[in-house]
Structure formats: C-alpha cells, structure tokens
Amino acid sequence: MTVDISLVVSFLAVAVAIFGSMVAYLSTVRMRGTVYRDELSRVELDKTRLALEADIKKMYDEIYRDRGRWEEINHLVMDAIVRQKPRDALEQEKNSVDSVRFLKSFGIDPKYIKVKPDQVFILTPLFEYELPIVNAVAVACRKVGLRAIKGDESKITGSILPVILGEIISSRFVIANLNGRNANVFYEMGIAQALGKDVIMFAHRDNVEDIPFDVAQQQIIFYRTASELHEKIGLAINQLGWSLGRSIPS
Predict the structure, then answer these.
(1) Global model pTM greater than 0.70
(2) Among 51, 89, 198, 215, which is 20 to 30 Å from 249 by CA?
C-alpha cells in the first residue's frame, strides 16, 4: 500500500489549523469569562459602596435633623456663635480683620498669654480608638523635646473652647488629626491657622477621599500604621524647625 505523502501533509496541516482555531476560541471564551467576572465584581463593589454611602448619609441626616444632637456634636462652633456679638457697619469698616475681638469674646487677651517653648497642642476627636494614634504623635514630639497635650487633659468646668483657644495660643505649633471629619477639629484648626500658628495635619490613607477640598490642597501627612505616622511627624517637626533636639521623659 502506497502512502501519498502530500495527502498526509495536507491532512496534518488541516488538523493543526483546526487545533489552533480551537485553542484560540477557548482562549477567547476564557478571556471573556474573566472580563465578565471582573465586571461583575466591579458592579458588586459599586453597589456596596453606594449602599454604604446611603447609610452614612442617612446617619448624618438623622443626626442633623435633631437640633439638640447637632449642637452636641458641634458644640465648639455653637459656643463661638453664641459669644460673638455683631458689629455695626462703621466698626467693620475700621477693622476689616480683628482676631483680638474674637478672642476677647471668650475672655482671652493674647497679650497676657506667653508661648510655652516645649508645648504642642493636638487637635483630635476624643474617641478611644484614636488614642494609639495620638500616643504615637505624642511620643514623636517627646523625642525632639516637645510635650504634646490635647483638650481633655485639663479639668474643665463650663465651656471648653476658651481653654482650647488659650492652649493653641500658648503652643509653639498645632498638630491636627483629620480622621473622622470632626467638625470641632476643623473649626479649631481654622482658628489656629488664622492666628498664625503652624499646623501639621495628618490622616489615615483610607480617609484620603474624606478630606474636604480646601483642606486637601494643603500639605497633609498620610499614614497606614502608628509607627509610620510617628516617623513622619518627627520629620515634619524637624522641617518646621521647631525641634528642641533633645528627648524628654514620658
């Protein structure tokens, strides 16, 4: 029996072509399946994100619908509004910017407050889960000879805002914890900047999108771990030139 070589070659060529087509088809199907799964995952993530945003909005709506709860959360802002007395047009024309008037409405005269060379004031939400972060900042300050304090460390009766304003004025600079978009922290930070204080701002990397637009344009330290924040705070203090260059006991 004679085998036609050309026929065999043709057969093999056709078989290879069919096999190649099948491989290409299966690869395309697999790729489409992967793309479909990725798209499905993205859609599910979008749904989850939208649901969370809706829950957060609902929570805020519930909080701000009740005046008492709103005032409790934003008590520093409300306290300032109550104490501020309106000026007449002539007075405003003479003094377009008058920070002393604002401070005096709280019984504070900056002329009688001296800056404490080793003091730093930390603006932070006073929640227990923020304590490890605040402690990391305090340790970074101690390592360069500075003592960091926060608003809940004094025994206060009555309004806390005058005490905080006094501490801001008497501190060399201010460190602000932006986690949680706390209204009081942002309000105090704005006052500190208006009074000419240097402010070091920090926030967790997961909260990048939560930073308000105007604040996001400024230099902010973003971190993932307390140790990373500790290191970056130390560098920021040295860059400001406020380091005393010696460690103080805790």
Answers:
(1) no
(2) 198
What is the number of H-type helices and E-type strands within the chain? Answer: 10, 5
Strands (E), the chain: 119-123, 147-150, 173-177, 199-204, 220-223
Domain boundary among 34, 65, 96: 65
- Do the Cβ atoms of 210 and 183 come closer than 8 Å? no
Mean pLDDT by 10 residues, the chain (250 residues): 52 58 63 61 63 61 59 60 56 65 86 91 89 94 93 68 91 94 91 94 92 90 95 94 71
Residues 105 and 188 occupy one common structural domain: yes
Residue 206 and residue 140 share a domain: yes
Determine contact, residues 92/86, Cβ cutoff 8 Å: no
User: Does residue 108 share a domain with residue 231?
Assistant: yes
Show the domain range for 220: 79-240
Name 120's bridge partners.
Answer: 148, 173
Residue carrying the six token digits 């986690």: 179
182 & 207 share domain: yes
